[in-house]
Amino acid sequence: MKLHQLIEKIEVKELVGNSAGEVKGIAFDSRKVQDGFVFVAQRGVHVDGHQFIGKAIAGGASVVVCEELPGELPQHVSFVKVADANAVLGQLASAFYNYPSAKMKVVGVTGTNGKTSIATLLHRLFRMQGYNVGLISTITYKINETEEVASHTTPDALKIQQLMAEMAAEGCEYCFMEVSSHAIHQERISGIEFAGGIFTNITHDHLDYHKTFAEYIKAKKAFFDGLPASAFALTNVDDKNGLVMLQNTKAQKLTYSNRSMADYRCKVLESHFDGMLLNLDGQEIWTRFVGLFNASNLLAVYATAIQLGQNRDEVLAHISNLQSVQGRFETIRSLDGKYAIVDYAHTPDALKNVLGAISEIRTRNEQVITVVGAGGDRDKTKRPEMAHEALLASDKVILTSDNPRTEDPAAIIKDMEAGVDTQYKNKVVSIESRRDAIKTAVLMAQPGDIILIAGKGHENYQEINGVKHHFDDREEVRKCFGLDD
Ligand SMILES: CC(=O)N[C@H]1[C@@H](OP(=O)(O)OP(=O)(O)OC[C@H]2O[C@@H](n3ccc(=O)[nH]c3=O)[C@H](O)[C@@H]2O)O[C@H](CO)[C@@H](O)[C@@H]1O[C@H](C)C(=O)N[C@@H](C)C(=O)N[C@H](CCC(=O)O)C(=O)O
Ligand SMILES: Nc1ncnc2c1ncn2[C@@H]1O[C@H](COP(=O)(O)OP(=O)(O)OP(=O)(O)O)[C@@H](O)[C@H]1O
Ligand SMILES: N[C@H](CCC[C@H](N)C(=O)O)C(=O)O
Ligand SMILES: [Mg+2]
Question: What are its E.C. numbers (predicted)?
């Protein structure tokens, strides 16, 4: 592709040099530049990519896209000055891969919790409906059943467009993707033509990055502000910021709710350990999910399928057969009748919800023992709140480690302990080793008791100082239960 074709749809402030040259690829990391590549200089969180323009040229870049032209402009290189390099990266990547998102219907899911659950269930549902479907999620990037382990919930713009180009080549008609607030803020989703957007909820998380809750809301809302009139914007009005998301969108506004009037409604009729009976849009169906939040997720899945033109009866029948997503309320039972639930709840609200779901199904003749930690190098202010939520709805709590990253695990646990009210001091213990914490919970438990192991879900590692050590909550529980002997 020639440079002038690549940039024909973007707003160029200044072009220095020739635009007839052939472009062989795009990179935003100077270390990944090859001969004939376009280097896009982005201002990052840690460094300014403009510092690496010289390195990128030395590495073979023939075009540099930047917000400020460097002092020296070598003759053999073309320079494209733009207002916002982050936004332009996605647009260039989309053009380079021949606008893949326009060849399918892309639906993005945003919100603090529920993104992976909804995007994954939509992928499974549309596979059951017989389509070729793509998925971009925290756990995996999938094209039909072919998958690669995900590096980010929403990867960088270049990777997104590459994935979508592969999806288009495989004949995918739909792509369901998670849209994280980091991705919106860093414009990783620029260049994607969305057919729909879903908002689940917004609660305490990521304040290390967004600084204030208002800024966090603003980032989420920007996704809906950017949707085209041809798309739908589906929001959860049970969340108090649900309608805020729709304030300035051009898209068709739609609502869903478990509690009040909305375009799509759902009611939990019965809850059991192995499933719920729902009234979903006027129809009673059995599902294999537990908890009000899962009723909400299934409603979002249903509403999206209907908006995308699927047959109501077929969709309801398939929803009834959907299984829970890995590491989301995954239950393991010991031979003597102890229950373990491995769940990815890593925010105060998610913990409250998952414990709420347990409370709906427990008999109250048993104990609920919660094992939970908080991630290092992430929002510190959620730590005491997580301990507080765990204690409110558990009989015993073991505070432990969850991906300490570059922080001291003992210091993270101390931050959590600050959320322990005096009245609860006797039901909490801190055990730094997650393996020992799980072992202790299993030893404490009697047959019939429920052990919630929260925070890591599908993760199969413990990240310490940049190294991911193999660790899987489900494996640990199975070992303690003697199930793998
Ligand atoms: C805080 C954050 O989001 N950082 C992301 C960001 O990196 P950054 O801004 O730190 O980059 P930087 O190091 O300052 O570099 C700036 C620019 O200079 C370039 N550079 C840098 C060095 C060099 O030698 N040459 C060079 O060209 C870099 O390629 C970059 O373009 O841009 C990178 C490329 O897109 C991301 O990989 C990186 O994600 C980091 C690894 C990360 O951990 N992000 C997490 C917090 C994240 O994004 N999480 C959300 C999910 C959260 C949730 O909902 O739970 C996600 O979507 O995964
Ligand atoms: N709709 C929901 N409302 C509140 N909590 C939820 C909801 N759905 C799931 N959860 C809880 O949040 C946890 C994470 O769910 P999920 O992985 O679907 O969220 P996510 O938004 O993808 O998270 P991440 O930001 O890490 O990508 C679940 O294990 C469950 O405890
Ligand atoms: N996407 C989230 C996942 C958190 C999972 C938890 N196990 C942790 O490490 O904090 C994040 O990166 O903040
Ligand atoms: Mg996710």
Answer: 6.3.2.13
